[in-house]
């Protein structure tokens, strides 16, 4: 049986809880987590040209992973709307990535990574529930059109409720591994994974190692699935 370790992590622009900017902490967390694929949020600063908060030049040496090859928000950005996906280099060779603009009060978008037998969608949903509902409706409608039956949607859902606002995910298995925000004393399950019902989930959790409680305001979440 071949396993695939998936993860999602909101980096909070690599500032920890209050600063300073220290991406080495976040890279150490990612390295200790040992994912095959990880969806990242808030990898860029928000103001001006939105330069990368997670330096592209440090990623592979620190984690063994590479970022998805995509058109980013700006010339100096790592991600699109602050998001990117890192993966093993052998997976990157087979990957096709597209960007999916999303509706809502704030500018948002999803990052869609297509592999030969799996589609991974990274998200950072809006702050208003009305926006989140519209965004999930758009994502699920597009996923049905562009992907096969093996779909994993993961990221910062910004939703504290266990079911409200997630109605468009009725056809998916929604996993909230545990409270992941705020990192020092987690109370809210903002970070989630939704996957096609037939995909075999083996285990999942919230990662607290490698000083994750200090590296960001979110803890990373992870899940192991049987590789389709």
From TrEMBL:
Keyword set includes Disulfide bond: no
Domain Endonuclease/exonuclease/phosphatase residue range list: 7-218
GO function terms (MF aspect): endonuclease activity
Source species, domain of life: Bacteria
Organism: Paracoccus lichenicola
Protein name: Endonuclease
Keywords: Endonuclease, Hydrolase, Nuclease
Keyword Hydrolase found: yes
């Amino acid at each position: 049986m071949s396993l695939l370790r998936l993860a999602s992590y909101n980096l909070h622009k690599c500032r920890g809880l209050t600063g300073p900017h220290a991406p080495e902490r976040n890279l150490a967390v990612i390295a200790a987590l040992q994912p095959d694929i990880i969806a990242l949020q808030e990898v860029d600063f928000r103001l001006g040209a939105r330069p990368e908060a997670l330096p592209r030049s440090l990623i592979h040496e620190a984690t063994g992973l590479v970022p998805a090859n995509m058109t980013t928000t700006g010339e100096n950005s790592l991600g699109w709307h602050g998001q990117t996906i890192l993966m093993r280099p052998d997976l990157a060779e087979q990957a096709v990535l597209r960007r999916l603009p999303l509706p809502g009060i704030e500018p948002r978008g999803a990052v869609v990574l297509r592999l030969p037998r799996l589609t991974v969608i990274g998200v950072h949903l809006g702050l208003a529930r009305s926006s989140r509902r519209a965004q999930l409706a758009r994502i699920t409608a597009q996923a049905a059109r562009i992907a096969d039956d093996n779909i994993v949607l993961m990221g910062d859902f910004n939703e504290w409720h266990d079911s409200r606002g997630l109605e468009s995910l009725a056809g998916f298995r929604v996993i909230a591994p545990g409270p992941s925000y705020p990192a020092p004393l987690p109370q809210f399950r903002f970070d989630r994974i939704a996957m096609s019902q037939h995909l075999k989930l083996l285990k999942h959790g919230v990662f607290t190692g490698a000083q994750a409680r200090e590296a960001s305001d979110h803890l990373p979440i992870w899940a192991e699935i049987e590789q389709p």
